[in-house]
């Protein structure tokens, strides 16, 4: 029964697409959380005076850092995270299309397999 083997193969491919999709969605969720966190830090920097003391946690140590440098680092981080989210959004759309196509293919194979079983019965 060639149809059964083909159906199994395509269903496995569909499940792999679903796994990839779930991983990317999880990554996007993590990035969105990091983005919110960094946006909050940027807002705090905006509220601070220019001569305020800023400390950065490096490992177990707090290191003094210039406010300008800290602000710049946070802005760069926000830009990077935003571009990563956009990249993942593109991947998500692509995988959604691939999943839809694979789902339709699997359904056609299931119907053909059912018809083959009924014809043999």
Automatic annotation (TrEMBL):
Pfam families: Prefoldin_2
GO MF annotation, one: protein-folding chaperone binding
Biological process according to GO: chaperone-mediated protein complex assembly; positive regulation of transcription elongation by RNA polymerase II; protein folding; tubulin complex assembly
Entry annotated with the keyword Nuclease: no
Coiled coil region boundaries: 71-112
A cellular-component GO term for this protein: cytoplasm
SUPFAM superfamilies (alphabetical): Prefoldin
Transmembrane spans: none
Domain of life of the native organism: Eukaryota
Keywords associated with the record: Chaperone, Coiled coil
InterPro entries: PFD_beta-like, Prefoldin
CDD domains: Prefoldin_6
Family according to the record: Belongs to the prefoldin subunit beta family.
Protein name per Swiss-Prot or TrEMBL: Prefoldin, beta subunit
Organism, scientific name: Spizellomyces punctatus (strain DAOM BR117)
């Amino acid at each position: 029964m060639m149809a059964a083997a083909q159906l199994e193969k395509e269903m496995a491919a569909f499940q792999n697409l679903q796994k990839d999709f779930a991983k990317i969605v999880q990554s996007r969720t993590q990035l969105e959380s990091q983005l919110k966190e960094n946006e909050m830090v940027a807002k705090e920097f905006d509220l601070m005076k220019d001569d305020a003391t800023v400390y950065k946690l490096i490992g177990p140590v707090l290191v003094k850092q210039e406010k300008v440098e800290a602000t710049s680092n946070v802005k760069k981080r926000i830009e990077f995270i935003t571009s990563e989210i956009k990249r993942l959004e593109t991947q998500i759309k692509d995988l959604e299309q691939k999943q839809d196509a694979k789902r339709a293919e699997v359904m056609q194979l299931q119907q053909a397999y059912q018809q083959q079983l009924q014809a043999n019965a």
